[in-house]
Write a structure and sequence with these properties.
Alpha-Beta Plaits; 417 residues; 19 strands; four-stranded antiparallel beta sheet; nine-stranded mixed beta sheet; 38% helix; 2 domains; elongated
Length: 417
């Protein structure tokens, strides 16, 4: 056969296996092919380079909505490593293509640029043996480092794929970023072009198959305000907010599907001796089940409304308190069964590499494609993270190269099918 016919035959065979997922035997053969075996070996021998990138990326601040400086570092890296059509989209995602023998299937491998830490946070990384310590060092600087490592390893080993791969360093995964990077990627930048999606986010060897949805609200309570002594007897926005928080604290929610609520931030007022004219709170409602999340949302809305009524009835003054509920975050929920081909392929890759792959739930960039019925998972990076989302965040790099190998082989396996 000619090389073209061989590639075409392999592609047809791979697509025929789509419904069943990648088998362990097929994946083992793939892993033992000369170029991929060389790349997998290099994942271990070049781990020092991956760690160096992890630290370098992390020492460039990327606060919420201010990811541009780190994005530029990744853009330059994509160019340096030879990706094609390196570009930055409207919201700040960095994209680069690695063409295969055919345009489809198109696999997207992503890691997020942003952290939860505000502007001005000291992002210096400190090393002690295998431990790296710094804000965002695991979430998701390790993911970015492995994203770049996969590109480098595939280039250096001349790995060829049947389908094409687009690598993405994306914005807006954390907090009030509200997955804006993914919403733009699937709704605008690559709408209709993506067949499979993987986010590198989290530690150990997890595979997130259940997307936890969330509704996030900023509730603003307004009132007349006044002197704490001279104007005593006015309805108080802070009291109304306190009543609302107390009601939320008494909610009974299901443990299956896991459903949670949290008042994460409060603020407002001007002085200890002034009745505030405005206070606010930010509330996070979550569930892996769409119906359970909707039911929790309704209870939350009713609790806020009742709190306002109770505060106004308590004082019965013409100048009353009101509340405005603003939805500031809406992450869709989604679910993949263990029988889904992308999950089977992830398990087969883990088996081929001698890894124990655990499935679970989480809120990641994969939420968006799952809500659109596009096969998507989030995978861990290997290693072990602690104090995630704290300024004391740490990452143990012991054997973390196995996470890079896992991401590499999974990329090739999904592109080959």
């Amino acid at each position: 056969m000619t090389r073209t016919l061989l590639l075409a035959s392999a592609l047809v065979g791979g697509l025929a296996a789509l419904a069943a997922g990648q088998s362990p035997e097929r994946t083992r053969v793939l892993a033992e092919s000369p170029s991929i075996a060389a790349a997998l070996t290099a994942a271990r021998t070049t781990e020092a380079q991956t760690i160096e990138d992890q630290v370098r990326f992390c020492e460039v601040p990327a606060p919420p909505f201010l990811e541009a400086a780190r994005a530029e570092v990744l853009r330059q890296k994509f160019v340096e490593l030879g990706l094609e059509r390196v570009r930055v989209d409207r919201v700040g995602n960095v994209l680069g293509d690695r063409p295969g023998a055919a345009a489809r299937p198109r696999v997207v491998i992503a890691a997020h640029l942003d952290t939860v830490f505000p502007e001005g946070t000291d992002v210096k990384v400190h090393r002690a043996g295998s431990i790296l310590r710094g804000p965002g060092i695991g979430d998701d600087c390790r993911g970015l480092a492995e994203l770049v490592a996969v590109i480098r390893l595939m280039r250096d080993a001349h790995v060829q794929t049947a389908g094409s791969v687009t690598f993405v360093a994306d914005v807006g995964e954390e907090g009030l970023g509200d997955l804006r990077g993914m919403k733009a990627l699937f709704g605008e930048t690559m709408k209709g072009e993506i067949d499979r999606f993987v986010s590198i986010d989290g530690d150990q060897f997890s595979v997130t198959t259940q997307a936890v949805g969330s509704h996030r609200y900023r509730v603003t309570f307004d009132g007349p305000g006044g002197h704490s002594f001279a104007s005593f007897g006015l309805a108080n926005p802070a009291n109304a907010m306190g009543r609302a928080i107390a009601k939320l604290a008494e909610f009974q929610v299901p443990s299956s599907p896991r459903t949670t609520f949290n008042v994460g931030r409060v603020g407002g007022g001007t002085s200890v001796n002034a009745i505030p004219s405005q206070v606010w709170m930010e509330v996070d409602l979550r569930s892996s089940d769409t119906a359970a999340l909707a039911a929790l949302d309704q209870k939350f809305q009713a609790a806020v409304d009742a709190a306002v009524v109770e505060e106004n009835e308590r004082w019965r003054t013409p100048r009353m308190v009101s509340a405005t509920k603003t939805l500031v975050g809406n992450r869709p929920a989604g679910f993949l069964p263990d029988t889904a081909p992308i999950v089977q392929t992830a398990r087969a890759v883990g088996q081929a590499l001698g890894l124990r792959i655990l499935t679970g739930e989480g809120s990641t960039d994969a939420n968006v494609p799952l809500s659109l019925n596009i096969p998507a998972i989030a995978i861990g990076t290997g290693g072990r993270g602690t104090d995630v989302h704290a300024t004391t965040e740490a990452f143990d790099t012991t054997d973390a190269w196995r996470g890079t190998a896992n991401a590499l082989l999974l990329t090739v396996a999904l592109a080959e099918r």
